[in-house]
Amino acid sequence: MGALRQTVPKAWIEVLGHPSRILLADHPRYADRVTDLERFDIYRLFQPETTVSSQLQAYLQSFDLIIAYWPTADDMLHQQLQRYSKGHVITWPPHPPAGVHVTDYLLQALELLSLRDVDPTPQIEMHAEAEAKAQAFWQGPPALGRRVVAFHPGSGSARKLWPLEGWHDVMSWARHHGMEGIVIAGPVEQERGLQTALQPATGDWPWTRDLSLRDLAALLRRCHTVVSHDSGIAHLAAAAGAATLALFGPTDPRVWGPRSPRACVLQPLTPQPLTLQNLPPEVVIQTLAALHEGTFAWQPGRVPCTIVQI
C-alpha cells in the first residue's frame, strides 16, 4: 500500500477486505478508504453463470485499476472482474514461489505502474487512538522505559510451535534476570491453556488478549524485543519497529521471514516438520540476551532478515 501511495500519490486508493485484517491500511499513507468485504456479494464473482448485484457492479466500475490478491485455481475471478469493471484488472496469487521473499513477490504485481524507488521493508503507521491505548497500558506494569520483552508463544499452525518447555525456560530466565515482560495471546493460545501452563515462568507479567492488529502494533512498537514463532505477530512486530526474534521450523525464512534490519530468525539447519522440537532453549536465551544487551551481530541490510541456522 505504501508503494502504491508513493507511486500514484494523487490517486484514490481503496482497500476491500476482512475488517479485522484491513485495519492497518486505514491510514492516509496507505488508503483513502477501507471497505468491509461482506458489504458486497463478492462470492458471485466465482460463479460463471451468475450476475452480481447492481451495487457491486457500480462499485467495480468506479475504479481505473483493480488489484486482487486472491488464491484461485483458475482465472474465473479475473474474467468476472474484467466483465464488470471498466478499468485494468490484475489478479495475483498471494503465495510466492520458492526463493522469492513474499514482499518482493507482492510488489511484482505493481510493475506495470513503473514503481519508483520503493523501500521493500514493511512499516506500519500508527493510529492516534491505538497509541493512546498503548500509552495507557504502559502506565502500569511493566513500566515504560525498562526495555520490555514481549513473548508470543502461539501460532495458527501446530507444526510451527516450539514445545512449551522451551518457552518456560526462556521466560523463566528472562524474569530471573530482571527483564520486564508481557505475553501476547489470542483465541488459539487461550484454547491451548497457555497462561495456566506458563504461569510459573511468567509470574505477574501481564497477558494481552484479543487486541486488534492496530492496537497490538502500537503496543509492540514500545517493546524493546519481541520473541515469536513463525507467525503474523513476528511480521507485525518487525514492521512496528521492534527488534524481533522469530523461531522458524519448516518454513523458509528467505521467503517468509519478517523483513526488517532488526529481525532475526533462528532455525535448525535442516528444516523439516517438527524440527523446532530440537531447538535448544539455551540458544534462544543466548540470542535474546545479545538482542537485549545490544551486542547481537546483525547481517547486512541486503538480506530480508538475519538468519541464524543451528
TrEMBL record:
InterPro entries for this protein: Glyco_trans_9 (IPR002201), LPS_LOS_Heptosyltrfase (IPR051199)
Annotated keywords: Glycosyltransferase, Transferase
Domain of life of the organism encoding this protein: Bacteria
Any one cellular-component term (Gene Ontology): cytosol
Pfam families linked: Glyco_transf_9
GO aspect biological process, one term: lipopolysaccharide core region biosynthetic process
Family matches, as SUPFAM superfamilies: UDP-Glycosyltransferase/glycogen phosphorylase
GO molecular function: ADP-heptose-lipopolysaccharide heptosyltransferase activity
Protein name: Glycosyl transferase family 9
